[in-house]
Recover the amino acids of this structure.
């Protein structure tokens, strides 16, 4: 119990730090006293309180919100689409794992697994070109027990996923999540992603993150520019 409480505390601290960074980005663009800043602060507070009350998101909500986000990424300008796909991949992986669940028990077990597999099969092609190894590893996760045996899943669950993107692309991504109140995807972004804003050609950012196995540093990115 003590270990679980410590993990939850760490996750909340990471989320609050990420939210603080979001506000900094907005303040840099529109000014500290702008009504937009106050509105985002209010929405973040409400989202935290709502998440505390509701616990976890259901599979239907996860699927619908991911699908909406994925549709927007697919319609983005080609200049930023590679970066947005790099942000989208860890959300795809975590959405799949959340839908799968952690236990192979309960009357809804087979329903959960089937829904998770259908989700994975529907959207896996988006990432087979940029994350082929990870997609193959996730494809082998056929049950919660298989997830426990997967090194990739253990890495995803035990630490944040590092992504190197430009500040503008990240702002676009967060702005869409806030605008359409995709709370499930926003929670995953805040808790599970460690976004490193770098200055480098957008076409090279995806390759930078992939080459580092999801752990890219700003120094590496600046050196690659």
């Amino acid at each position: 119990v003590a270990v679980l409480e410590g993990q939850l505390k760490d996750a909340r601290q990471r989320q609050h730090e990420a939210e603080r960074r979001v506000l900094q980005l907005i303040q840099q663009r529109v000014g500290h006293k702008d009504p937009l800043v106050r509105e985002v602060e209010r929405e973040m507070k409400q989202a935290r309180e709502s998440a505390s009350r509701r616990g976890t998101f259901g599979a239907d909500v996860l699927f619908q919100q991911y699908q909406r986000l994925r549709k927007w990424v697919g319609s983005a300008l080609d200049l930023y689409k590679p970066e947005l796909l790099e942000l989208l991949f860890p959300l795809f992986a975590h959405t799949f794992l959340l839908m799968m669940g952690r236990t192979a028990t309960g009357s809804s077990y087979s329903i959960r697994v089937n829904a998770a597999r259908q989700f994975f099969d529907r959207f896996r092609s988006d990432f087979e070109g940029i994350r082929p190894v990870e997609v193959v590893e996730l494809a082998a996760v056929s049950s919660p027990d298989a997830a426990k045996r997967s090194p990739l899943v253990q890495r995803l669950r035990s630490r944040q996923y590092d992504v190197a993107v430009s500040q503008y692309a990240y702002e676009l991504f967060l702005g869409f999540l806030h605008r359409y109140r995709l709370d499930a995807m926003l929670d995953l972004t805040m808790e599970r992603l460690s976004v490193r804003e770098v200055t480098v050609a957008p076409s090279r950012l995806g390759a930078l993150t992939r080459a580092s196995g999801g752990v890219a540093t700003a120094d590496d990115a600046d050196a690659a520019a």
In short: The first strand starts at residue 161 and ends at 165.
